[in-house]
Amino acid sequence: MSEKHFFAVDLGATSGRTIVGRLSDGRIALEELTRFDNNLIEVNGHFYWDVYALYFEIIKGLKVAKQRNLEITSIGIDTWGVDFVCTAEDGSVSQPLAYRDPHTFEAMYDYLQNVMPREKVYDITGIQFMNFNSIFQLHAMRRADNSALKNVKKILFIPDALSYMLTGKMVCEYTIASTAQLLDPRTKRLDSTLLASLGLTDSHFGKMVNPCDIIGTLTPEVQKITGLGAVPVVAVAGHDTASAVAAVPAQNERFAYLSSGTWSLMGIETKNAIINNVSYGRNFTNEGGIEGTTRFLKNICGMWLYERCRKEWTDAPKSHAELIAKAVQQPAFQSLINPDDAMFANPTSMVEAIQDYCRQTDQHVPQGYAEVCRCIFDSLALRYRQVFSYLKEMADFPIEVLHIIGGGSLNNDLNQFTANSCGVEVLAGPQECTALGNIMVQAKAAGEVRDLWEMRKVIANSIELKHFHPKDKAQWDAAYEQFLAVLGKKE
């Protein structure tokens, strides 16, 4: 295997990076070229992403690659899900509304009450109901007579929009489209009934492509700006979680995964979607993976809680390690919350929201950063147990190990809490799972690896995993009963 260089764009809801992956001799190494902020912009009561700023940062990264004389084999882009741009007849791109914009809160309930019942939407899509799903964003825009939607030529999800700006080609990548709650995972196509309910048709979206498909090459304009040639842009798993799951270094299919970051996404990889009364009642989602797999998972509000609190703490240590060390010294389980309660969606003060939740459920009200942080970690680990127990019931195979991937895989204390709570061996790593998945899909497109399992073998050969084994079973069993009782008080 000769050395190949792949250029990955990895965009999250707070920051983005451009990365080059070097693949040789069955191993992969990553090097970050640029890092930049991805800022929410508030204008006239709405929150937007600056897609042009993101495009500019990609161009900067490509220029760095050229300055370094890196021969780039291909380019791939992954981002968060659900958000999209509207392109006009002249090809211009609108600034996309952000998924945290409050305009969807009422729109979801209006759609499900007055347009199509909840059960029918789930039966078609198998997607978890969250107010910011694309279907509800589009409904909110339609109700508001949004000018970009009224004049839309094509709707492009964020990675597809950026690929369009690089190549001039409009596509709809399968994994990112699957987050919209507009796609039928059985047919793997956008559903015409759901589209019609929004005044749309399949023609309002780009050509459906799958991971490993070539979207196009850099336009002459981009080639001139960057100094690069006609480098191909590959449709990777455009949804960052799909890229992350592709990078799980599993040895066989008997695993669950926890993609731990701002969001925690816990699930399993299946051949077919799981859509039934149980999955509906528990609000599980069926999103697209590579090679036709389905990511059966549940979104959990993850380190968002910690990140928001950390911005408020003026007396907390700047170091994550010091802060967490103080937190784990606090008494366990004295305050518990449901991380997915609506109170924590986007409060003015996350600390006050956590304290209010504890007051409402007759618990000790945490004081100071250490107690609040301990409350968050205990609660996340117990919420993970709840979702993990659901997965064990619904999987058609035994789950033998839990892989924790993403930035949260570096949190050794929370990893150990998760092993204790779920009663399963935890393997932590890689941290850079999204970029690795992005790059390995490009490698497959280039013919450097055969399939998903060879991709995972290369990744496993390139990293070191940390192992966490369950401890203190009786203590965590009792805490789980306490956690369920707390949740019951809020129902």
Tell me what you see in this structure.
It is a single chain. The chain is 40% helix and 22% strand. The strands form six sheets. It has a seven-stranded mixed beta sheet, sandwiched between helices. The chain has a six-stranded mixed beta sheet with strand order 3-2-1-6-14-13, sandwiched between helices. It has 491 residues and is of the alpha/beta class. The N and C termini lie far apart (57 Å). A hairpin with a 2-residue loop joins strand 15 and strand 16 (263-270).
Task: List its traits.
single chain; 491 residues; alpha/beta; seven-stranded mixed beta sheet; 22% strand
Mean pLDDT: 96
**Strand order in the sheet with the most strands:** 17-18-16-15-19-20-21
Strand content: 15-25%
Q: Which radius of gyration do the C-alpha atoms yield?
A: 22 Å
Q: What structural category characterises the helix and strand content? A: alpha/beta
Count of distinct strands: 21
Helix content: 40-55%
Main sheet characteristics: 7 strands, mixed
Looking at how many chains there are and whether they match, the oligomeric state comes to single chain
Tally of helical segments = 19
Report the end-to-end length measured between terminal Cα atoms.
Answer: 57 Å
